[in-house]
Design goal:
single chain; alpha+beta; 7 helices
């Protein structure tokens, strides 16, 4: 019985080591460090639970020298507080290039188009103009020709082992960590209207899709 217990504990340990790249012969699953999604978080093969937060940018070009210095000082204070001594889980910052999401803008144009058709059908020139806008920007969005920088903060915590209990406990810890980092960041840069948003599983999946196949 003791031997069986030891074997069971061994099976629950996180002992995965990323393999070396073998001349493009691996599949996506072979190369990926991701096991799957659990709620809004990524579970990695190395035993980490990972959350992604999207942060609005600060346009430094619109600030004078003193204001720019304040931004860097406030951001530095946030980093020292969040990543200082005694903090064991890591935070990573990435800025991938992503297609501009014009869905809300297009939906607004479509509502305006339908409204004019129903209430002012005589305004044919304006209706046709809005229709041309819809066609133009839909083509741009589908072709992914317009891009922007997305500001992402990656937060992770360790999962003790592969048991469901450890996974649920890690979710609780990551929930707390994500919310604390969000509050700290927004408070540090509150003068510059910076906002942070914890991404849902569908938003995280979309980011992963863009990283794997931008044009797919």
């Amino acid at each position: 019985m003791k031997l069986k217990k030891n074997n069971q504990n061994t099976e629950l340990n996180w002992d995965y080591e990323p393999p070396k790249i073998n001349n493009k012969k691996e599949t996506i699953d072979d190369m990926s460090l991701i096991v799957g999604m659990y709620g809004n978080y990524i579970v990695s093969k190395t035993g980490n639970l990972i959350g992604i937060m999207e942060v609005s940018g600060v346009n430094l070009d619109l600030l004078n020298d003193t204001e720019q210095e304040d931004v860097f000082n406030d951001y530095g204070a946030f980093l020292m507080t969040t990543l200082g001594d005694g903090v064991h889980d890591s935070i990573q910052f990435i800025e991938p290039t992503v297609p501009v999401n014009m869905t809300e803008y297009l939906n607004g144009l479509k509502k305006k188009y339908l409204y004019l058709q129903q209430t002012h059908p005589e305004q044919t020139f304006k209706i046709e103009l809005i229709a041309s806008y819809i066609d133009h920007f839909t083509a741009i969005q589908n072709a992914k020709n317009m891009t922007t920088k997305q500001h992402l903060m990656i937060v992770k915590v360790k999962i003790k082992d592969k048991s469901l209990e450890s996974l649920d406990l890690a979710v609780e810890h990551l929930d707390e960590k994500m919310n604390q980092v969000k509050r700290d960041l927004e408070n540090a840069l509150t003068d510059f209207d910076l906002t942070a948003k914890n991404l849902t599983n569908q938003e995280v999946i979309q980011i992963l899709k863009n990283l794997i196949n931008y044009n797919g």
